[in-house]
């Protein structure tokens, strides 16, 4: 009988070491059964593309991914965190996923193609165990690199959406609509990162150019995926303007903020956020439908001298598209 492997990390380890270490053990070393050690039996993983309950379901999903992408690597890019050993930790872990498609996926048969995509996993860790996770995946980039038709995949996602998932989407949209944006004065991101996050993201989604420019360095860059980059605050503002043309009357909620200082000149900030609105502009050939849209996203900022220098933002464009396409 094979003895189950024990993972090398525990609740008293440095939290960044813990997150990077368990990810490497599970994926690169294929210690998939270690999920039972590192994830709670009743953990919940929320995503714009579905909800997963329990460690065993996480194990099953991991093995399914490896069957389709046996050489998959998750290359750590950054971990931004908050909390403590006694109170529990919150981590926002950004990864570059690289793999070769050698088995069938929800997008179709194996293509043999290489994929690169950015994921962010926001986790609550209590006593060395992940109890809650928000998994943000760039599924649009995933699908297009596998030569899938985004509209067809979006219709499949819509058709396969569970009642539980739809209820969660509706509830999160209602929560976001009922959230009031605090009236914050200009603030330094190091002194009050939460107020800074509210002010900046509200400016992004309402088109407040003066506030946007004051919070972004002229040379700032936005990375939306390994292949989509925007350089300079004018391009970054134009990107958000393109979203505002699709999503009318947006409401925003800042759901979690974590930060670490950068010596004396700045900070790294992770923000999990929600936006809801109405589909009022064409997107990928789909004309305005008036349907509600809900987005779950995570943004990582590197702030230098009080302004955003680098932004990494991830949300699931494909799952958003699935909310407005006509049924198959």
Low-confidence stretches: none
Mean pLDDT across all residues, rounded?
A: 96
Outline the biggest β-sheet.
6 strands, mixed
Number of distinct beta strands: 12
Strand order of the largest sheet: 2-1-6-5-4-3
- Cα shape: globular
How do the helices and strands line up, and which of them pair or pack?
Layout: H1 15-28, H2 35-38, E1 39-47, E2 50-53, H3 55-68, E3 73-84, E4 88-100, E5 114-126, E6 129-137, H4 139-145, H5 150-159, H6 163-177, H7 193-206, H8 209-215, E7 216-225, E8 228-231, H9 233-246, E9 247-262, E10 266-279, E11 292-304, E12 307-315, H10 317-321
Helix pairs in contact: 7-8
Quick recap:
The protein has helices spanning 15-28, 35-38, 55-68, 139-145, 150-159, 163-177, 193-206, 209-215, 233-246, 317-321, and strands spanning 39-47, 50-53, 73-84, 88-100, 114-126, 129-137, 216-225, 228-231, 247-262, 266-279, 292-304, 307-315. The chain is of the alpha+beta class and 328 residues long.
Report what the structure shows.
This protein has 328 residues and is an alpha+beta fold. It is built from ten helices and twelve strands. The strands form two sheets. It has a six-stranded mixed sheet with strand order 2-1-6-5-4-3. Strands 8-7-12-11-10-9 form a six-stranded mixed sheet, sandwiched between helices. Strand 5 and strand 6 form a beta hairpin. The protein is globular and about 55 Å long.
């Amino acid at each position: 009988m094979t003895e189950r492997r024990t993972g090398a990390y525990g609740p008293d380890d440095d939290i960044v070491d813990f997150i990077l270490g368990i990810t490497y053990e599970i994926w690169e070393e294929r210690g998939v059964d270690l999920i039972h050690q590192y994830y709670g039996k009743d953990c919940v993983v929320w995503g714009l593309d579905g909800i997963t309950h329990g460690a065993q379901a996480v194990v099953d999903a991991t093995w399914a991914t490896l069957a389709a992408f046996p050489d998959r690597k998750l290359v750590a890019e950054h971990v931004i965190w908050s909390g403590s050993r006694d109170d529990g930790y919150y981590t926002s872990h950004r990864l570059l996923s690289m793999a070769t498609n050698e088995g069938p996926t929800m997008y179709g048969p194996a293509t043999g193609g290489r994929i690169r995509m950015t994921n962010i996993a926001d986790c609550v860790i209590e006593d060395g165990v992940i109890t809650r996770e928000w998994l943000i995946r760039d599924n649009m980039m995933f699908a297009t690199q596998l030569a899938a038709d985004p509209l067809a995949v979006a219709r499949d996602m819509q058709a396969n959406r569970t009642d539980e998932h739809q209820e969660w989407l509706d509830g999160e949209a209602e929560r976001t609509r009922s959230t009031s944006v605090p009236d914050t004065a200009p603030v330094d991101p190091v002194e009050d990162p939460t107020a800074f996050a509210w002010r900046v993201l509200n400016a992004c989604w309402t088109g407040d150019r003066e506030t946007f420019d004051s919070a972004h360095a002229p040379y700032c860059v936005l990375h939306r995926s390994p292949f989509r980059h925007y350089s300079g605050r004018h391009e970054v503002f134009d990107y958000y303007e393109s979203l505002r043309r699709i999503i009318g009357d947006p409401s925003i909620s800042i759901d979690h903020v974590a930060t670490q200082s950068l010596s004396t000149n700045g900070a790294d900030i992770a923000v999990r956020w929600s936006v809801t609105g109405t589909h009022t502009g064409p997107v990928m050939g789909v004309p305005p439908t008036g349907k509600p849209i809900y987005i779950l996203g995570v943004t990582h900022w590197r702030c230098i001298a009080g302004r955003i220098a680098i932004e990494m933002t991830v949300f699931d464009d494909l799952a958003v598209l699935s909310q407005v396409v006509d049924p198959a």
